[in-house]
């Protein structure tokens, strides 16, 4: 279980985080990716169905609350979008902010 948990936290989350940092992910895709993580955690690469010994909501809790601290993609996606909004409003001198403002503010008015 420890190896699978490590793979979930460092590989599966890294792939989705990269995509979410560029594009918003539709809710259906987020649900499917969470389902893949759940199945991988409980059954690994076995063909047989694994037993779910703990509820998924307990697994995504912080360790101090008895969970395994598996990230939920919905919250992670929202946090990344909020981060970009914050960076856009606070980094007025950055090249990427100036390019976006020049391109899209000209369209608005």
From TrEMBL:
- Residues spanning the signal sequence: 1-21
Q: Which UniProt keywords apply?
A: Signal
| Keyword Signal appears in the UniProt entry | yes
Highest taxon above the source species: Eukaryota
What is the protein's name according to its record? Uncharacterized protein
What is the organism field in this record?
Solanum verrucosum
């Amino acid at each position: 279980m420890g190896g699978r948990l490590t793979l979930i936290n460092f590989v599966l989350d890294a792939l989705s985080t990269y995509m979410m940092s560029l594009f918003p992910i539709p809710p259906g895709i987020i649900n499917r990716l969470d389902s893949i993580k759940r199945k991988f955690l409980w059954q690994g690469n076995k063909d047989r169905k694994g037993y779910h010994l703990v509820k998924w909501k307990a697994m995504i809790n912080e360790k101090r609350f008895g969970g395994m601290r598996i990230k939920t993609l919905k919250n992670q996606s929202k946090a990344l979008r909020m981060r970009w909004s914050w960076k856009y409003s606070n980094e007025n001198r950055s090249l990427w902010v100036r390019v976006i403002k020049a391109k899209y503010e000209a369209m608005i008015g």
